[in-house]
Amino acid sequence: MQALVIILNQMNFFEALLQEFNDKELYGGTIIDTQGLASAIAANCDGNTFGTLRMMLHGSRPFNKTIVMLLEEDKVQVAIDCVKTVMGNLNEPNKGIIFTTPISFVDGLDD
């Protein structure tokens, strides 16, 4: 089992991503309203370093969505493909991040 984490910085992809997950019958997961550390620092701190940070983040949204899905191995690539189908190249600035990590223990999931 893997945890798939998607940090979605551009909300214009959100509904289409949910629809893509639905189309592929990927229903389990949690969506969390989040904020990046850099944007929180830029919004809450003064000083030259933080002014530079504000300039780097100019035009990016201060808040994002984090989607966490616990997936069986055979569903991981399906979910990754959903993200790439909807969002395209994630290497563009402030678009989002996706990663997986192995899960060694979980309790409380229905089979």
Oligomeric composition of the shown chains: single chain
Beta percentage is 15-25%
For this structure, what is the CATH class of the domain at 2-35 and 63-102?
A: Alpha Beta
Task: Name the strands of the widest sheet in spatial order.
Answer: 2-3-1-4
Structural class: alpha+beta
Roughly what is the average pLDDT, rounded to an integer?
86
Sheet with the most strands? 4 strands, antiparallel
Radius of gyration (CA) equals: 16 Å
- What would CATH call the architecture of the domain at 2-35 and 63-102? 2-Layer Sandwich
Count every helix, treating DSSP H or I runs of 4 or more residues as helices: 4
DSSP helix fraction = 25-40%
Overall shape: globular
Distance between the termini: 13 Å
Given as residue ranges, the uncertain stretches (5+ residues, pLDDT < 50) are none
Could you tell me the CATH topology label of the domain at 2-35 and 63-102.
Answer: Alpha-Beta Plaits
Number of strands: 4
The ordered H/E elements are EHEHHEHE
Provide a descriptive summary of the structure in words.
The protein has helices spanning 14-23, 37-44, 48-57, 73-87; strands at residues 2-8, 30-34, 64-71, 96-102. The protein is 39% helix and 24% strand. Strands 2-3-1-4 form a four-stranded antiparallel sheet. With 111 residues, the protein is of the alpha+beta class. The chain has a domain at 2-35 and 63-102: Alpha-Beta Plaits. Helix 2 crosses helix 3.
What's the short story on this structure?
With 111 residues, the protein is α+β, with helices and mostly antiparallel strands. The chain has helices at residues 14-23, 37-44, 48-57, 73-87; strands at residues 2-8, 30-34, 64-71, 96-102. Helix 2 (37-44) crosses helix 3.
